[in-house]
Design a protein that fits this description.
The protein is of the alpha/beta class. The protein is 29% helix and 26% strand. The chain has 5 helices and 7 strands. The strands form 2 sheets. Strands 1, 2, 5, 6 and 7 form a 5-stranded mixed β-sheet that branches. Strands 3-4 form a two-stranded parallel ribbon. The radius of gyration is 16 Å and the shape is globular.
């Protein structure tokens, strides 16, 4: 399952109008970003795919977890570049999640199984929920 990155910003901010369907890295490069710490796999993916563009992302704030990152975004501290599935973790916040492109950055998620063995009933239910939420799974 592949999911792309998006920007998270307060729904009340200027860039989150209802007719904003997507944005680009160039359009948001001057915004104040709340980033995950440098050891984060998510941050490493951004650095790898953006290359020199990543160096122009401004930030004064780094946090350790998505939950904290989105909490600060929800309070108007800045915006965040997040995997689009992260939006599910903070439904309590008034956030706009806008796809970001040029380049579009995707990450793959999957479920590892042992050949010839079936999933336990609980694991199979988890797989079904993941397929529903993430929009597909190819074996």
């Amino acid at each position: 399952m592949g999911k792309s990155y998006a920007t998270a910003l307060p729904r009340s901010s200027k860039g989150s109008s209802d007719n904003t369907s997507s944005t680009t890295w160039e359009e948001v490069q001057d915004e104040q970003f709340v980033l995950l710490r440098s050891e984060s796999g998510t941050r490493k993916i951004l650095q790898r795919y953006l290359g020199e563009k990543y160096d122009v992302i401004s930030n004064d704030m780094q946090v350790g977890h998505f939950h904290s990152q989105l909490g600060l975004v929800g309070k108007g501290i800045g915006i965040a570049a997040i995997p689009s599935l992260v939006r599910l973790s903070r439904k309590d916040l008034e956030l706009a999640i806008i796809p970001i492109s040029k380049p579009t950055i995707r990450r793959k998620l999957g479920i590892v199984t042992c050949r010839g063995r079936s999933l336990s009933p609980a694991a199979e239910e988890l797989r079904k929920v993941a397929v529903t939420i993430m929009g597909g799974f190819s074996e």
